[in-house]
Amino acid sequence: MSLAALEETPAKSGTTSTGTKYCYFFGGGKADGNGKMKDTLGGKGAGLAEMTNAGLPVPPGFTIQTEACREYMRGKVSPQIDKEMKASLAQLEALQGQKLGAGDNPLLVSVRSGAKFSMPGMMDTILNLGLNDKAVEALAKRANNPRFAYDSYRRLIQMFGDVVLDVPKKKFEHIFDSVKHAAKIKLDYELTPAHLQKIIVEYKALVLKETGKPFPQNPIEQLIEARDAVFRSWQNDRAKTYRRINRIDDWLGTAVNVQAMVFGNLGETSGTGVGFTRNPATGEAAFFGEYLMNAQGEDVVSGVRTPLPITELEKVMPHCFEQLKAITSKMEKHYRDMQDFEFTIQDGVLYMLQTRNGKRTGLAAVRVALDMVKEGLITNDEAIQRVEPNQLYDFLVPRLIEKGEKIEVLATGLPASPGAAVGQIVFTAEDAVKHHAKGDYKTIILVRGETTPEDIAGMEVAAGILTSRGGMTSHAAVVTRGMGKCCVAGAGECLVDENKKELRVKGHTYKEGDYISLDGTTGRVIAGRLKTLDAQPDDPDLVKFMAIVDPVRRLNIRANADIPRDAKMARQFGAEGIGLCRTEHMFFAEDRIEFMRTMILATNEKDRRAALKKLLPMQRSDFAGLFKTMESLPVTVRLLDPPLHEFLPKREDLLVQVARLEETKPRSPKLKELRLLLARVEELHEQNPMLGLRGCRLGVAFPEITEMQARAIIEAAVATKVKGGDPHVEIMIPLVSMVEEMRNQVAIVRRVAEEVFAEKGTKVDYMVGTMIELPRAALTADQIAEDAEFFSFGTNDLTQTTYGISRDDINNFLPAYLRLGIFKQDPFATLDQQGVGQLVKMGVEKGRSTRPKLKVGICGEHGGDPESVKFCHKIGLNYVSCSPFRLLTARLAAAQAALEEKLGEREGSK
Questions:
Q1: Which of 23, 859, 872, 882 is catalytic?
Q2: Measuring CA to CA, which of 8, 27, 104, 275 is 20 to 30 A from 421?
Q3: pLDDT greater than 60 at residue 418
Q4: Active-site residue 645, yes or no?
């Protein structure tokens, strides 16, 4: 296949022959595999095969398929793997006219991971494999460049020692830095061959000391051990964390790519780089990337040296630059997506090492999708699938408020990932996780010289990342863009001392816990604690994108909102109603908490009604504001749900206050008041309040509470209608477990509604439904539907009561459950479809067996989780409701669910 034909030629699917084929060769202009074989070859291997078949300049090699990794994980490795690997190596040696690590012109290879889904930096790589004490001398003589040969060997020992032999990387770095310091050298490439030989000797001594064995000199032994280390890296902590965050199946496994080395560190006519066919931060259709001359690949992405913009390559090597641009442009058209590529230039000759669909920010994802529709590369439906739902958070990232503030810019680095973050600094991932768990740092900024894949857990909990080294394609930049977090990279003016836990810049010294502000859009590091401004979802690209998203989905998307301000924001973000208005939140305001406490402290119905009468106009005003804001859209109001003790001071605090007054002012009237309050708190105390007097049980025990709330809702709706409004009211009874509870509360609501209609001379349409949040309610949903006109699944409590887990206490063991794989995700973040989800599905089916047109929704936190939204679509819900800031995510997830269903129907009809 020619490069010219590549644009028009789709990749072909591949299948293995009878039995398992483990090794797939690529080289000499043809490959055993192709670009569609990502399940087998991984993304990197499939890309190498596709580029080889297209006749692109790809160093030859072979891919050991993902099934070999799965066998390794199961502990049952077929001997066929070694047999095929050695046969493929022989084929590579014959093609190159070289022997691995032997002869006057030794073959060297790289050994790299490559899963189906891109996992940048999460697994391991070894370069220059095949070098040993003899081969390094042959390489030095062949290349007529001893420095290059010794530099390559010391890199192999360090990478192999770290990845394969588990010798701590810091110990190698200490040796390397000590030699540089003794020689008074600042830059790595200033090291002489003698310096590098000294490093090699000390590296080998370190390996012997740490492992009890010398560094392996047998190239085949190196290859087998490196392959197995890559397989093991699939199971390292950072890879498992990344898969959990990105919901990648643990049993996919990684392929291993063994490829002939080409060298970017041969001298000033050699170099290496990484790039994107479009800007991964903004989506701009501009060639983007970075490179270094006289370097190997890890120098660019590790952050050890700050690379140059790829556009500078045009001045240094114009022919290579134009060739690179032409190849990657064709690859983008072939794959119909933005490409992330790696390349090496050896003695002025360009080689392509990788191409894959590039990671990008949400801003870039939307722009690229829209631009590719305009360019005719993809359809609207494909554009919708190109954006991850959670990426739309990028349009809602905060910005720094600078007007009127005295701004001190400490440093300017690279704008690696957009947005703003203001928080307290920590210097290690471990400290970030610790402070996040303790909750003593509200927001965290992780400050590092450069991040490494081991920092993934700390990056997950941090609001922003600052590095003093590294570029736009460094680990920190790539990972934070994928996470949607703010990042400033390569801020060279910042001196980060991770041992002393200090950040020194412009005469300032910042210690752990000090505040700084980051602007990931401009790359600025700013002193102090600025305020942030929420983003406005009126970006023209976002508006255009959502205009093609919304017509596709079937699910309606509502918001959880309790006050008019939140309701206004929800409408701005595209809410089609309010799915949950929690009335209890209205009672915590300063002007009404005392009335609420008076009602709770009352010992008889008369006093309770007197207190409720004072709360009535306040509630009515709240509801009127919501109905006005939402106009003709539906508003679901949940009646009082939490235990009454939540509105009272804490028992422990009252005990302290009483003891203090008894000692200092024993005759104080305040003491008598506090004793009465303490007595009532003691009376209301429950061993398990979340399963006690709350929800509909409050309304059954104290019907005057339900009466007041129903009156406030209906009066507000009538008043809105009288003023020309069109309110659509849904009154929701919480925590129902049996139909008798439902009937009791429905009767009160309907009686009060009729009283209001008679008093006001005006009627409004309204519905009464329930929140299904207990397993028994789901199991008896057919009975409950006799009286309930709609269901809304409260999956927070349904998850609690199904698992028997308190969401307030789950963090005591959740980290262990996630680490051990007992939980793949936090069940309070992503709906448990096999357990809780089956109760939801059963509740829907049973409810509609009684009331076929029953309206059904979900209003727990799961309403904004993409996978949960797709499940809700699948089981036939009418709507999901989530927080305003998750509305964009839910809208896109619902559209993708509809498209996936349509695609499934097409596949099923074939």
A1: 859
A2: 275
A3: yes
A4: no
